[in-house]
Amino acid sequence: MELSEKNIAAAKYTPYDQWPTNHIENLQKKVQRSKWRLAYHIQPETGLLNDPNGFSFFNGKWHLFYQSFPFGTFHGLKSWYHVESVDLVHWENRGLAIPADTAYDSHGAYSGSAIPLNDQLRLFYTGNVRNKDWTRSSFQLGATMDTNGDIAKLKKPLIAELPEGYTSHFRDPQVFEYQDRYLMLIGAQTEHKEGHILIYESDDLLTWSLLGPLNFTDQQMGYMIECPHLVRVNKTPILIFCPQGLDQKIVSYQNSNPNCYLIADELDVTNRSLLSKQPIKRLDDGFDVYATQAIDAPDGRTLAISWLGLPEQGEYPVSVDGWTNCLSLVKELTIIDNHLYQYPVKEFHAQKTLVYEKQHTIDDITHVYQANDNCYELEITIPANKQGDLYLLADKQKNRYLQVTFDSASGIVHVDRSKVGLVQIEETNSVRTTTLPNYRSIKMNIFVDHSSIEIFFNEGYKVLSGLVFPEQEDTNIWIEGSELTYKERLYTISL
Ligand code: FRU
Description:
By secondary structure, the protein is mostly beta strands. It contains three helices and 36 strands. The chain has two domains: 5-344, Glycosyl hydrolase domain, family 43 (Tachylectin-2, Chain A, 5 Propeller); 350-493, Jelly Rolls, CATH 2.60.120. The protein is 5% helix and 51% strand. Strands 25-36-27-32-33-34 form a six-stranded antiparallel β-sheet, with no helix packed on it. A six-stranded antiparallel β-sheet has the order 26-35-28-29-30-31, with no helix packed on it. Strand 10 and strand 11 form a beta hairpin. The structure holds beta-D-fructofuranose.
């Protein structure tokens, strides 16, 4: 069944069991024919994927859930879909985990987190409810998963009441252990339309009391904060969050909404303050990155995974294939010299096969390679004080391409996706920029997976990620520069 624009609104909140039985099968057929399916990223089986949820390690495996609407490529009735892995690389689909099917989550099982406790994984999420007048209520809800993977919802909400002075934009609980108790961060909006993060505390994960808003800045954080996460990288607290409608003077960004972070000195729960001398920054300099979820993993690492997609964004070209969006690679977060680094986890690198390694000198434009498939990692090292352009996802004539313009004297790199593929992305600004230390060499590790690209600069000092929709045969790589000697490695990736 093809849904017309008109029918989308009606279909948005149709309960899953009321969809025609062949609807998913029809979508599956389209998905199978899609040239943009990913080879090494988490993607929806059908329909739409958004935020990562409930990232955790439990019962000997990594667990991850994501926001899912399996019946269409628009933001419909959201549920949690479950995937699990032994190595953070190979993910197995486990199916629908938290449906939106009770009075407390009738219009969506929204984002949240998970923590293991004894022989259960405790899940925390937001129930989104609309009444007949379309007024929204938000409930913070709980569920448990046992060692068989069976999930049971708690009957009563953990937090049923909105705190005074706040609107029903109140969601995305992150629960973590802190000293002798548990804390929960919740994204919130004040009645004056200001974005806040609220902190609750609990001794038993069942009874929660409000401590108040987290004080981490004097500036206004837009009109709402979504998906707050507080983690510790070697004891240094890092706050990751998505302020909607943030003033560009505070953090400059070109996406519909930014995913930001703050490196703090210390979390002082008594005063609800996150002391920091550092400014708030963009977590990723790319096109489509949002709702990053981070965890303090039991092995001591801090791990993060992002939604490669954006809220309030028109449909991507891939929507015609019955699916849209994916998750990023799992990234390890580290801090070196007060700077946050993000890099794909070490487990991922075991999956790579070196195809070639060479050093080139060029004085014009050179055809570097024609990959069999847009599924590889390209590592390029540019010496200090050099300028040039790298073209990926290019056709033979170089009419279509993704352009990476680098200048290692200024340390500035631009990535332009306006010429990728025959299907143009309708956007007014197709260029994103990252800034690296100047007068130094630049190393780029570029992970290409059919319709996603993640560029890690200087071992993860900066990251620039996004979705791209090239033609299948556009697998050429070109480089242009004068008196440019650079190093290059190409790996294929197969899981
Ligand atoms: C962020 C978000 C969350 C919400 C979820 C709903 O992308 O809007 O705030 O819980 O998506 O799918």
